[in-house]
Design brief:
Elements lengths: L2 H4 L16 H16 L9 E2 L4 H13 L15 E2 H12 L4 H19 L3 H11 L4 E4 L2 E4 L3 H10 L7 H15 L6 H20 L6 H12 L3 H10 L22 H23 L1
Antiparallel strand pairs: 1-2, 3-4
Helix pairs in contact: 2-6, 7-12, 8-9, 8-12, 9-10, 9-12
Protein name: HEPN AbiJ-N-terminal domain-containing protein
Organism: Flavobacterium sinopsychrotolerans
Pfam family, one: AbiJ_NTD4
């Protein structure tokens, strides 16, 4: 994570792309459209495309149904066949000028063509690109679905309070975000570790005992700040008693158990929300 993000000058939402598409994601999505859609269905820019061919039907569907253009204005060559070069060039020009949500509209449209007709698994390739660039959206059954909500982003941002009092908590949480949002080499295993450590650090600060661990600290907090016992037990169980003898750091996070982005995101958001909850309790 960059310095500007750690001190709160750059929003966490810049790492997890919600209601936005940066240049890297934009380029990757276009490459996916070009390589995993047009190339796969056999679009050759140097050959003519008959209006009644399979590719011609796909092109006409995109032209008339998505762009809502006039049928007789689709780019054609002198032989009145569809010009693949001009057609894809039109789409490319539109794509890089369009709004972020319009790009997702187009991906959704292509996905539905694939599901209903082509069967080339466009959504799988597209989702790989979205995942690599930390998009908050995925293609599910021909629909763009938001997998990271505004509320989740707010929880993480609120937990990153720039205060010396909470510096150890912020350090662990920032590191968890860094591991999670690394687009070249995400480390979900260590992201979970750091998310848990952020909660544990907060509990140590609250009880004033740097040598304690999460379970006994939560027990003290439960009694002193009226945290519901069921909630305390749930978090203690969820985090697997983060002791050196066992628990989540030595079971869930062992090398033989796969840890996914969804696991890491759940822990990051849950830990951030719990941190915010405990801070509110302290203020009362």
């Amino acid at each position: 994570m960059r310095f500007s993000q750690r001190i709160g000058k750059t929003s966490v939402r810049d790492s997890i792309q919600i209601e936005s598409i940066d240049e890297k994601l934009e380029n990757r999505l276009w490459n996916t459209i070009q390589i995993n859609f047009f190339d796969v269905i056999g679009v050759n820019f140097h050959h003519k495309i008959d209006n009644d061919s399979d590719i011609g039907l796909v092109f006409n569907s995109i032209w008339q149904e998505f762009f809502e253009n006039r049928a007789d204005e689709i780019p054609k060559n002198q032989q009145r066949d569809i010009s693949a070069r001009e057609f894809v060039g039109y789409i490319k020009d539109w794509f890089f000028k369009s709004n972020w949500f319009e790009k997702y509209d187009f991906l959704e449209f292509l996905s539905k063509i694939d599901i209903n007709y082509l069967k080339i698994e466009f959504d799988v390739r597209c989702n790989n690109s979205l995942k690599k660039e930390m998009s908050a959206y995925r293609l599910v059954d021909g629909h763009i679905v938001q997998i990271t909500s505004e509320e989740e982003i707010v929880e993480i941002e609120d937990a990153l309070v720039n205060s010396s009092k909470w510096e150890p908590v912020n350090t662990h949480l920032s590191t968890a975000i860094e591991y999670f949002s690394n687009r070249k080499n995400p480390d979900y295993r260590n992201s979970i570790k750091e998310s848990i450590s952020a909660v544990e650090s907060l509990c140590k600060i609250i009880v004033g005992n740097n040598s304690t661990t999460l379970a006994p600290a939560l027990k003290i907090i439960e009694e002193k700040y009226k945290v519901h016992g069921a909630l305390r037990s749930a978090f203690t169980a969820l985090y697997g008693y983060t002791s050196d003898a066992g628990g989540i750091r030595h079971s869930l996070l062992t090398d033989d158990i796969e840890v996914s982005m969804e696991d890491a995101k759940f822990m990051l958001v849950s830990c951030s929300a719990f941190i915010n909850y405990l801070k509110v309790k302290l203020e009362k």
